[in-house]
Amino acid sequence: MFRMTTKAGAAVLVTACLLTACSKEAPQNTASSVPPQAAPVQPEQQQTGEALFKQFCSSCHPDGGNVSDPKKSLHGAALRKNNIATADDIVRIMRNPGARMLRFDAATISDRDAYVIADYVLKTFR
Ligand code: HEC
């Protein structure tokens, strides 16, 4: 009888401890894990191809067109006709464009972003 009571008492104690530990840990965990999760938002500075294209290109190439020379649009057929097949080709044009296009050097659009834009162009305007 005494044994059983002790066991039961111990079980209650253990349960109580577990519960207390749980209820103590839960809010602490949430509180301490929120700031570290919110902090690494920094890599968000890497913009998508779509955002970069809108920022730098779409004023002259809306929807992949070309406001001053429709034959030099960014659509697949036009690109193929003008021997532009790869991301390298598009980046080369950004770095060294024709007379009417703005020039984008690496200080304005990094190599990484230039290739992100080029991939976006190749995938989006077919
Ligand atoms: C100020 C207007 C302007 C901006 C901004 C501009 N372009 Fe152009 N782009 C042109 C013009 C005009 C041409 C036709 C060639 C020429 O006269 O320079 C052209 C041609 C091209 C071509 C060759 C297309 C073909 O079919 O031969 C590519 C590729 C291109 N641009 C990509 C881009 C990208 C990528 C951006 C953004 C990073 C961009 N352009 C921003 C005006 C612009």
Provide tags for this entry.
126 residues; mainly alpha; Cytochrome Bc1 Complex, Chain D, domain 2; 2 domains; 5 helices; 59% helix; 0% strand; binds heme C
Overview of this protein structure:
This protein is mainly α and 126 residues long. It has 2 domains: 2-43; 46-124, Cytochrome Bc1 Complex, Chain D, domain 2. 59% of the residues lie in helices and 0% in strands. The chain is built from 5 helices and no strands. It has helices spanning 2-38, 49-56, 76-81, 87-95, 111-124. Helix 2 packs across helix 5 and helix 4 packs across helix 5. The longest helix has 37 residues, at 2-38. Mean pLDDT is 81; it is low at 15-20. Bound molecules: heme C. Heme C binds next to helix 3, helix 4 and helix 5.
